[in-house]
Amino acid sequence: MNERILSELVDGLLSGAVSRNDFIEQMKTAPVRELGDVRLDVHRLLRRGFGEIIYSQSKSDEQLQKIAQAVKDGAEPCLFSRLCERQASLVRAVCPDLEYCQEARLGGLRRPKARYGGVTVISAGSSDVPVAEEAAMTAEYLECQVTRLYDVGVAGIHRLLSHASVLAESRAIVVVAGMEGALPSVVAGLSGCPVWGVPTSVGYGANLGGLTALLSMVNSCATGLSVVNIDNGLGAGVCAALSVRQASR
């Protein structure tokens, strides 16, 4: 339920077009849509400004199709995260207009127009791009314009420094890095906006599946750097988008 539908319901109650009992019954069922073993949080849009993001990994085919059927006629953007190609085909059978990015493992319905600018997503290496794309596409579905700077890691730091003007103009930055995870500290030291570091599981043995990069980022001496979980591009994309949206209010 979005603000427009809720406003119409309240107006109907005040005008007498909607009875008191009907209003109460609709409000009882409005927060959650029951789909058997799945319960959609349909009031998240009212609380947070964006709808529920469907985590698709490990969901059954039946669950995914139930959810797709429930959201296909909605008016608001909808995201399916960690969506594999086979699952995307199942959702697309119900929602033909699904936009799917195999690299980011992200599917979206009804991409909105960009209302907020200033989100920049940076990847240290080309191997980190899938997680970076998850962050970028998430921010775009939260109505943000995104600038991408990929493969600009510390092994050739001049690649990043040539984009100093982009860093200066950014209002929120997501930095995705594996290996030793040094790039977010560098970016946070060069920019004056909030920076979110995303450690990735990319790297050799001592990378420990991203743990080394994670510990490096949380021990950064650069202030203004926050860190999300390993490979969590979606979480960082939401944080960056919320930061820009809140600053624009």
TrEMBL record:
Gene3D superfamilies, sorted: 3.40.50.1970
GO molecular function per UniProt: hydrolase activity
Coiled coil: none
Pfam families cross-referenced by the UniProt entry: AIRC
InterPro entries: P2CMN_synthase_LarB, PurE_dom
Residue ranges constituting the PurE domain according to the UniProt record: 117-249
Membrane-traversing stretches: none
GO terms under biological process: 'de novo' IMP biosynthetic process
Organism domain of life: Bacteria
PANTHER family named among the record's database cross-references: PHOSPHORIBOSYLAMINOIMIDAZOLE CARBOXYLASE-RELATED (PTHR43064), SLL1489 PROTEIN (PTHR43064:SF1)
Name the record gives this protein: NCAIR mutase-like protein
